[in-house]
């Protein structure tokens, strides 16, 4: 089969994916070890039998709905390429807003920073890549996620980032100038959980009780024991949770509470500055 034919999306894929052609290019690139530009240059090149059968096996997985990132085993985030696996969420572009906001919070200097529910380590590693002076620690409840994040630290040449196992603040001591988290925040009844890539991701990383606000509430409350005076707390949250998270932070005594939009213009990140006690 010619490359150009292999990259013509079957109808079933167009029904399933927002980017069927790109999906096929990524899968074929993975099989033959070439970048996407190669396909544009050599559309008439014939694939070998071995290449074609390996490619078809990956396409079959995609047609069952499996996310491209899990099939490839990697996902780009910020300037990094991270290993991903079904033990964690796939890092999303919107989460880069959390990284940008976090980078804006503190002046130059050496600070202690914690990422709660770090998963692949995406946020912790992106922050460490931009601020080599920060002492960044990422925590996750799942031992497999901690091991994955540690591998990502080595992969990115950022093994100064510490990854620790435990529930939220459990592995932490002392106080932090910045605490960030992209916790589970989807309402257990949200239909979005039955659609698309999200079906293959771990529920424990997605869903929280209390209409999605249980973990955010727990973290915001407990963070008052772990933030320095004037330390910052930042959350990613659902597009419709900005008002609730602002109210929560304000009631707990955080100052300068505000929400930032994601790339689609939806409320996505809320931050507050701990006033101290
Ligand atoms: N934004 C993700 C989604 O809607 C959820 C991420 C999360 O729960 N932390 O699929």
Automatic annotation (TrEMBL):
<keyword id="KW-0808">Transferase</keyword>
<dbReference type="InterPro" id="IPR029063">
    <property type="entry name" value="SAM-dependent_MTases_sf"/>
</dbReference>
<dbReference type="GO" id="GO:0032259">
    <property type="term" value="P:methylation"/>
</dbReference>
<dbReference type="InterPro" id="IPR002052">
    <property type="entry name" value="DNA_methylase_N6_adenine_CS"/>
</dbReference>
<dbReference type="GO" id="GO:0003676">
    <property type="term" value="F:nucleic acid binding"/>
</dbReference>
<dbReference type="InterPro" id="IPR019874">
    <property type="entry name" value="RF_methyltr_PrmC"/>
</dbReference>
<dbReference type="InterPro" id="IPR004556">
    <property type="entry name" value="HemK-like"/>
</dbReference>
<feature type="domain" description="Methyltransferase small">
    <location>
        <begin position="103"/>
        <end position="191"/>
    </location>
</feature>
<feature type="binding site">
    <location>
        <begin position="182"/>
        <end position="185"/>
    </location>
    <ligand>
        <name>substrate</name>
    </ligand>
</feature>
<dbReference type="GO" id="GO:0102559">
    <property type="term" value="F:peptide chain release factor N(5)-glutamine methyltransferase activity"/>
</dbReference>
<dbReference type="Pfam" id="PF05175">
    <property type="entry name" value="MTS"/>
</dbReference>
<comment type="similarity">
    <text>Belongs to the protein N5-glutamine methyltransferase family. PrmC subfamily.</text>
</comment>
<dbReference type="Pfam" id="PF17827">
    <property type="entry name" value="PrmC_N"/>
</dbReference>
<feature type="binding site">
    <location>
        <begin position="117"/>
        <end position="121"/>
    </location>
    <ligand>
        <name>S-adenosyl-L-methionine</name>
    </ligand>
</feature>
<protein>
    <recommendedName>
        <fullName>Release factor glutamine methyltransferase</fullName>
        <ecNumber>2.1.1.297</ecNumber>
    </recommendedName>
</protein>
<keyword id="KW-0489">Methyltransferase</keyword>
<feature type="binding site">
    <location>
        <position position="168"/>
    </location>
    <ligand>
        <name>S-adenosyl-L-methionine</name>
    </ligand>
</feature>
<feature type="binding site">
    <location>
        <position position="182"/>
    </location>
    <ligand>
        <name>S-adenosyl-L-methionine</name>
    </ligand>
</feature>
<feature type="domain" description="Release factor glutamine methyltransferase N-terminal">
    <location>
        <begin position="17"/>
        <end position="73"/>
    </location>
</feature>
<comment type="function">
    <text>Methylates the class 1 translation termination release factors RF1/PrfA and RF2/PrfB on the glutamine residue of the universally conserved GGQ motif.</text>
</comment>
<dbReference type="InterPro" id="IPR007848">
    <property type="entry name" value="Small_mtfrase_dom"/>
</dbReference>
<dbReference type="InterPro" id="IPR050320">
    <property type="entry name" value="N5-glutamine_MTase"/>
</dbReference>
<dbReference type="InterPro" id="IPR040758">
    <property type="entry name" value="PrmC_N"/>
</dbReference>
<feature type="binding site">
    <location>
        <position position="140"/>
    </location>
    <ligand>
        <name>S-adenosyl-L-methionine</name>
    </ligand>
</feature>
<keyword id="KW-0949">S-adenosyl-L-methionine</keyword>
């Amino acid at each position: 089969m010619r490359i150009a034919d292999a990259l013509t999306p079957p109808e079933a894929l167009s029904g399933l994916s927002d980017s069927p052609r790109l999906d096929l290019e990524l899968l074929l690139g993975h099989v033959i070890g070439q970048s996407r530009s190669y396909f544009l240059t050599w559309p008439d090149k014939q694939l070998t039998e071995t290449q074609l059968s390996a490619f078809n096996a990956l396409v079959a997985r995609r047609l069952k709905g499996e996310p491209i990132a899990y099939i490839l085993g990697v996902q780009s985030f910020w300037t990094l390429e991270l290993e991903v696996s079904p033990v964690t969420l796939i890092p999303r572009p919107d989460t880069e807003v959390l990284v940008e906001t976090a980078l804006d919070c503190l002046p130059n200097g050496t600070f202690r920073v914690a990422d709660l529910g770090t998963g692949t380590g995406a946020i912790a590693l992106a922050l460490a890549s931009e601020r080599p002076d920060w002492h960044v620690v990422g925590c996750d409840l799942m031992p497999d996620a901690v091991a994955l994040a540690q591998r990502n630290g080595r992969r990115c040449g950022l093994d100064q980032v510490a990854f620790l196992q435990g529930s939220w603040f459990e592995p932490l001591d002392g106080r932090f100038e910045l605490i960030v988290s992209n916790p589970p925040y989807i309402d257990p009844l949200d239909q979005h959980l039955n659609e698309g890539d999200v079906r293959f991701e771990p529920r424990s990383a997605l869903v929280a009780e209390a209409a999605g606000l249980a973990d955010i509430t727990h973290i915001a409350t407990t963070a008052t024991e772990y933030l320095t005076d004037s330390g910052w707390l930042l959350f990613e949250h659902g597009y419709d949770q900005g008002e609730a998270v602002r109210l929560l932070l304000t009631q707990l005594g955080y100052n300068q509470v505000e929400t930032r939009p994601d790339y689609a213009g939806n409320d996505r990140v809320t931050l507050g500055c701990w006033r101290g006690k």
